[in-house]
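Protein modeling request. Please complete all fields; requests missing the sequence field cannot be processed.
Requester role: graduate student
Desired output: 3D structure, token encoding
Chains: 1
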Amino acid sequence: MAWRARGAEAATKFSACDLRPDGALRPTRGVIVADHQYDGTLGTVGIGLVFGLVIMVMVYATGQLSGAHINPAVTVAFTLTRHFPAREAAAYIGAQLAGASAAALVLLGVWTDKLTRLGAIVPSVGVGAFLYELILTAFLMFVIMAVATDTRAVGAAAAIAIGGTVGLDAIFGGPVTGASMNPARSFGPALASGTWTDFWVYLGGPFLGAAAGAVVYELVRGERPGGTSVEARDRAIGDSCDPVRHDWVGR
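Delivered output (251 residues):
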């Protein structure tokens, strides 16, 4: 069963990376290239909407299989807050990186001249880019924690909430940093195009931002359903640690 969950993560990441386009400073990849090639027909808002919609539909499609983390920063944040087993984290992250790299290589096969660096993003500001990525990812992770780990949230609408947050973040932060919020999304095109400029921004910002968003939600959520005892907390965490049961769509 575990290999199916990892395969779902890889496939989801491939779809999330390969089915989107823009210019050098926007949030997606296949969409990034296509938008640039065809005179910017989508624009920042259009690209942000595509970004969010792809995430939404893939969460609905694979949430029941793997949890549809899609993002190494999300996996690490879930692990740090004991909502995901540490023994599975490395395999999930490997699958996400493999899916993102495969998507970038597909684009390289289509656009051999490495148009728009195959969607590799480079920030348009200095050190502030790190803060942008950190804050954007923190907002995203806060929403994910609410709909994925709190039984008081409406589970069936989780994908809409997450996709909507991704889209809004992309519209707001896309022109500044590319609004990656996802180390795997940045890794794939950087590897395929050889563009590693300020790559640390797209590692440190998302990882620290996701951890911060998860911890903040844990602090403000109040008592966990079922009581506050260690036993009740561990029972709730034990349920969420099953890679198949831990999903964004419903619990």
